[in-house]
Design goal:
18 strands, 15 helices
Length: 467
Amino acid sequence: MSIVHRLLAERALLPDGWAKDVLFEIAVDGSLAAVTADAGAQPAARHAVRAAGPVLPGMPNLHSHAFQRAMAGLTERAGQGGAAGEDSFWTWRSVMYGFVETLSPGQVEAIAAQLYVEMIKAGYTTVGEFHYLHHDPEGRPYADPAEMSERVLAAAAHVGIGITHLPVLYAQGGFGGQPARPGQRRFLHSLDAYLALIQELMRRHRGNPQVRIGIAPHSLRAVTPEMLTGAVAGLDALDPEAPIHIHIAEQTLEVDDCVAWSGRRPVDWLMGHLPVGPRWCLVHATHMTEAETRALAISGAVAGLCPTTEANLGDGFFPAIAYQRLGGAFGVGSDSHISVSPVEELRWLEYGQRLLERRRNRMTGRTGSVGADLYRAALEGGARALARPIGSLAPGHRADLLVLDAEHPLLYGRQDDTLIDALVFAGNANPVRDVMIGGRWVVEAGHHFAEEAVAARFRGAVATLAA
């Protein structure tokens, strides 16, 4: 295997823990060909580039709606979408529907590129794009039905982030076959048209190690049981290992409506009707009983947690401590992008549990170092949810890594797991210095190679939307 880069790190977080003098040998396809600890005296190390600080695996972002980055901060006025004092997820959703009415393919691409640059600079190296803006403003397919998907994929390729693209199946306005609302017309597909889209995207991007295609039935309220079963069967025929993501149990009203429709709560219904397992990611899953929490944990599915968005929307608290004690897998995502920081997602995941229990250091894992345990768990769960060889600095995985600035005041004097604790809990400054994705340096000394041009196009898109 041809080696195109060699990187020597004084300290690096490997699958078995921290190691010193780690030599990374990176293949031409962007994967890690070899990872060798205590390699400082090896001949190959003498010719390697030296990392400017400690090295961590890049974080997967398992849940994103890219276009929502351009509306972040625009929904914080009382009474938008409903009566003043009654603001909720549902009134926020009404405002969001208005925002998407006129978005063009070019604007979506510009917004996604800007978002993805921000993600990379913050330490995300792969994104799970839960993509439901498919059609033109009248709800008609574009000449290329994959137009909007291709714009998002083009944005990811341009800025260098890895992507698991998850086109959304959306077919109805509520449980029991309620008709879709006018604000949802850009999202809607028949099952046949949807599976044709998935097949075509897989054909176009087959062999690209930076792209993975999966499916995302939007939610139990947005698809019929028959469509959900058909979508999973159709995916199995195309790629039986491809990921499946679904929103579930985010809001108490959703739970109540599901019970009224089916007699069962959302997670319970899903577990009883579909073969939920490790290829599944249940996004939010905020409102679960003890039995549902146990069922999700033992299924091997990943809970997709987005604490900053869940707080912003008033969703509630995920039962993280009980779920963790049961061995449940989780990862984090930035969802609506009111924050684009893996650190803030991990911090608020822990802080939410502290506020609930009025005690400290709740989500301790195998090391007892809360920040480091959260980081490791989110790497593992995010990699599983996005179905790519990421989240670990090991041979055969993608060469997705972060170099931290050890001289940054936030991290100075910190070592190993204490360094990650400081990264997660000790401040809001960003000490990510360099970022490599798929063997390519995309951020060096804090600067993304395309950030100026991307920002200019983003400003143009926002100016047009605001006019």
